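Troubleshooting: if your tokenizer reports a length mismatch, compare your output against this known-good record of 84 residues.
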Amino acid sequence: MYDGWRDGGWGPGAWIAMGLMMLAFWGLVAAVVVYVVRNVGHRPSGPAASAGPDEALRILDERFARGEIDGDEYNQRRELLRSR
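Known-good structure output:
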């Protein structure tokens, strides 16, 4: 009698291991894609990243307009920025 499941083929453990390896492989591929999408072409943002002299003065003007700093501090920092 011929038994197709017992002809020297792989048992259920090998099939489970193959399934787990496929999950690990595709999980790794997904992790690499997420990493690349998040980090490639990423430039720092915010005031510190693009703070040239004009940008620094603009930020200082905004802080003064919002009332975060008083007139004396505004003038002192403005002169410091202009001297650079």
